[in-house]
Design a protein that fits this description.
Helix content: 25-40%
Order of helices and strands: HEEEHEHEHEHHEEHEE
Shape: globular
Distance between the termini: 37 Å
Number of helices: 7
Largest sheet: 8 strands, antiparallel
Radius of gyration: 19 Å
Structural class: alpha+beta
Strand content: 15-25%
């Protein structure tokens, strides 16, 4: 299985090798747009329409944390990360509350959200929190969620450096508004933007592609959107699947 950095490098290599041929295909005979489906999206209590599913959408387990009065959120996250590493649970990722379902957010809007590695069930997440919950955690909820795990790949126009693209896009502010949390990686040939968070609407993804295209001096359709991880992901062509596991709170 390839690691994410290897996948991102491969995506840029493919972009360099095939950009002319692919651009001609996009302009002459664009591929059919898949049927959009509706899923809980980027504001938690709203719905996002996405056609970017399959390997780009992953099922994860998220922990919503409400700290005790006066507690240090950074210390809570640090303690839980240390416990997860010590117990071989894996790396905990930061996320916003928007990953949770609207029904859960009516019950609790967390001050801290951590996401367990893919493959860790809500039941396992509940057991982890039960055993290693810091004393400064007043309340928590564990819930299975759907998340976008995708990467934007950019090959700038001649004369435009990857760092200039990143600076221009940051200054424009579209990435921050649409993605909130993201990771930028500069490479000799271009750059990638990795996003792991609540499911984005097509409108938001296209806004990011347009912003990166403007910064890179290329058209938005030349900004590729790729899955960050291998594997089938979640197919939304038949609607949002039942995540089956029920939330557990304490």
């Amino acid at each position: 299985m390839k690691s994410r950095p290897a996948l991102l490098s491969l995506a840029l290599l493919l972009l360099v090798a095939g950009v002319v041929a692919r651009l001609g295909g996009w302009l002459d005979s664009p591929e059919p747009v898949p049927v959009a489906v509706t899923t809980h999206g980027d504001a938690g209590d709203e719905l996002a329409t996405t056609t970017y599913d399959g390997p780009m959408v992953r099922k994860r387990t998220a922990i919503a944390i409400h700290p005790a009065a006066g507690a240090d959120r950074a210390a809570i996250a640090r303690d839980l990360r240390a416990a997860a590493e010590r117990e071989n649970v894996g790396e905990l990722s930061d996320a916003t509350f928007a990953v949770f379902s609207g029904a859960m957010l009516e019950y609790l809007v967390p001050e801290l959200t951590l996401v367990l590695p893919e493959g860790v069930s809500a039941r396992h997440g509940e057991a982890f929190m039960r055993d290693f919950r810091p004393d400064s955690v007043g309340f928590y909820v564990v819930e299975p969620v759907l998340m976008h795990d995708l990467t934007f790949c950019v090959l700038p126009a001649p004369g435009v450096t990857p760092s200039a693209v990143a600076e221009h896009a940051e200054a424009e502010g579209v990435l921050a508004d649409s993605l909130n949390r993201y990771e930028t990686t500069l490479q000799p040939a271009g750059l990638t933007i990795h996003y792991l968070g609540a499911v984005l609407s097509d409108r938001q993804i296209e806004a990011v592609r347009a912003s990166l295209g403007r910064a890179a001096g290329i058209s938005a359709d030349r900004v590729l959107v790729e899955a960050s991880q291998p594997g089938p992901g979640v197919d939304l062509s038949n609607g949002v699947p039942d995540l089956t596991e029920k939330p557990h709170g304490h």
